[in-house]
Write a structure and sequence with these properties.
Elements: E1 2-5, E2 10-25, E3 38-56, E4 59-75, E5 91-104, E6 115-125, E7 135-147, E8 153-165, E9 173-175, E10 189-191, E11 193-206, E12 209-221
Antiparallel strand pairs: 1-2, 2-3, 3-4, 4-5, 5-6, 6-7, 7-8, 8-11, 9-10, 11-12
Amino acid sequence: PEFYFFRDKYHIKNEFQYMNYPDKFYGIGPNTTEDDKENYTSRIFSFKNVIERALIPGFYIGVLYNIDVRKTTQAQDGGLIDSNLIPGSKKGLISGLGFTISYDNRDDILFTREGMYANLAITQYSRHIKSDFDFVNIIFDYRFFEPFWFSHVLALQFFTSYIHGQAPFYLLSQMGGSRLMRGLYEGRYRDRNVVVIQAEYRVPLFWRFIACGFAGAGEVSPAIRDFDRE
């Protein structure tokens, strides 16, 4: 659920998940292969909450809290997760507090035709608030939407995530899934840091049907200096 109150002055966004989820893990780093794939299943409960207040129209500052509890219930024999060789292999609880700054002048949050969205979120996960892992996660997400003739729309996105400290493998910065680098399995590539640039062009066909063409490029790395500059 996502709520806007008092003429958009306050914004509250929540996300709840409970899953017993079969997943795939390909390892950590940019050079993993299909041969590295191992199957596992985990039981997950997570809650994310963001409360923001508008300082001026469209510009918000706020606080956030994340909690995520996981337990691996099944792992492929002899794999990294089964052998408990990576942080978070068996189970883990992460608890984090942070703040967020965002600007949003999109015409519609569900199907945007024009406008811009930018968000910076910094979250500290700490043993002082019952987290099993100590790390900081910095995320910056920028999206731009430009309308063209006959209701065509060009959408652009720049996304980066940086982790300092020791995070469990399932919360490392990652690519794949429906939001970042679609066409890749969610979490196909993961490491401390990720940078993704992607674009989408939308063409209305008839009634509620729309055709989309999209492209993206991205990379994960253990450190910022290790990103490929070629």
